[in-house]
Amino acid sequence: MRTIAIINQKGGCGKTTTAINLGAVLAGKGYRTLLVDMDPQSHCALGLSVPENRIQQGTAELLRAGLDGTVGVPDLVWQVSRNLDLVPSTMALATMEQRLSSAPDKDRRLSQVLAPVQDRYDICVVDCPPSIGLLTFNALRACDEVIIPVETGYFALQGSVRQARTIEMLIQRVGHRVRFSVLPTMYDVRTKLAREILGELKRHFGEQVLPLVINFNSKLKEAASFGQPITEYDPSCRGMQDFEELATWLINNAPDPPSMLEPVPGEPAYRESYTPAAHDDDAAEPRPEPVITAAGEHPAMSRAAELAERARALSTRTAALSARLERQDPALTRDEPAQPATALVQVETPKHNEHESRAAELPKADPAPALTPLQRQARLEEKLEQLYGSRVTAQGTLFVQPTGKANNYALAGDFNDWNPSRTPMSRNEALNVWQAVVPLPPGRYRYRLVADGQWVQDPYNPKTETNPFGELNNVIEVGAASA
């Protein structure tokens, strides 16, 4: 059973919404899913129409009993829908930290009670309280991975770095390495602030930010008020699509099995004084702790390995590109004069397009004398720049950007309701470029590039117009003959 903990000590960031709807979508995909509510507010039950006055026992009794056999998960579950079971909580859970404070296994109770049902479920989603305490420590002990929902608002951005540091410190203290990911929530693509905050999250956390967002969608709030997951309330809405993407990504990107770390010397796994108050904005910074990356490696060692791998990949791509361009213009790689030539460069289209490839004809090169290394480099860059930007082709509108300026690209424009998640650009390893082919009917289209979450102008398309935010949108026109 794969266990996912939803953790953030800040309230109102979408933890319970994420837990409920992720669990419902996974269940809809056929995965036997268990949702465990570790929040005394019992919002999971409220959001799934489980009547509070009929909940006799919940996670409090489960943790209190432990492995004594008097209470088990099967005794508490509510079958919400096919493949989705809920272990609800009650206000009694608020007293459990004090009750278990002297128990030797106080931070392992949840993993112990989940062990007997490992074969009964495929996935367990744990909704944690908006605090860092014994309940959250139990979730960390039991889980394989952590998802940190972060609202794309100013105050959430300020606390996200400290939240991630807190999670890393907790992982070190419990001696249990897990993968953690940042999930941007309540994202409003229409606001410049939300786009900038998403870019800041990606710059700081890099690949730990999930390659998707949960957009602001009123249907999600409406579904919760009616006590239904989004799968039942409105399965055609945008919120449903976002959680479908989240579930699909998690299914396709399972973490490595958890492994054990050496605990901090001289420190207990759980400290009673380790509370959210110690991490308020006005409080002193916590003392430095060993930092563990999402992969569990030392940052310096991980960075060195990453750079070495990038260097090897770059060398391979450069050799392939040089060989390809030499066939077009031998003067780029040799000192002998070159003969005029016309060549076709195969540009591989993204997987989501039905067309497999297209050919872009480069202009004929003039006979060239022997070139110096600097001249060859300049000629190479000149030929590459002819590929960049946007142009209309028989297969669709081709968008191309060079690598090295951003880790990922997407397109937002009139053709996709300004939603960059619908039109990501793919990496062409052979030509070392980012590209996308978008079939468009005749018309005039405005668009912007989204580079690492930042909305920017396409520098290789000179056609622009000013948008309401005072920035420049690029423009491309598709004629009837081209379409």
Short description:
This protein is an alpha/beta fold. It has helices at residues 15-28, 43-47, 59-65, 73-76, 96-99, 109-114, 134-142, 154-174, 192-205, 218-225, 230-233, 238-252, 299-328, 373-385, and strands spanning 2-6, 33-37, 78-81, 84-87, 123-127, 145-151, 176-177, 179-187, 214-215, 259-260, 344-348, 357-361, 389-392, 397-402, 409-413, 426-428, 433-438, 443-451, 454-456, 464-466, 472-478.
Structure description:
By secondary structure, the chain is of the alpha/beta class. It folds into 2 domains: 2-294, 3-Layer(aba) Sandwich (Rossmann fold); 302-478, Immunoglobulins (Immunoglobulin-like), CATH 2.60.40. Helices cover 32% and strands 21% of the residues. The chain has helices at 15-28, 43-47, 59-65, 73-76, 96-99, 109-114, 134-142, 154-174, 192-205, 218-225, 230-233, 238-252, 299-328, 373-385, and strands at residues 2-6, 33-37, 78-81, 84-87, 123-127, 145-151, 176-177, 179-187, 214-215, 259-260, 344-348, 357-361, 389-392, 397-402, 409-413, 426-428, 433-438, 443-451, 454-456, 464-466, 472-478. The strands form 5 sheets. It has an 8-stranded mixed β-sheet with strand order 3-4-2-5-1-6-8-9, sandwiched between helices. Strands 15, 18, 19, 20 and 21 form a 5-stranded antiparallel β-sheet that branches. Strands 13-14-17-16 form a 4-stranded antiparallel β-sheet, with no helix packed on it. A hairpin with a 2-residue loop joins strand 18 (443-451) and strand 19. Helix 1 packs across helix 12 and helix 8 packs parallel to helix 9 (192-205). It is elongated and about 85 Å long. The model is unreliable at 261-308 and 329-366 (pLDDT under 50).
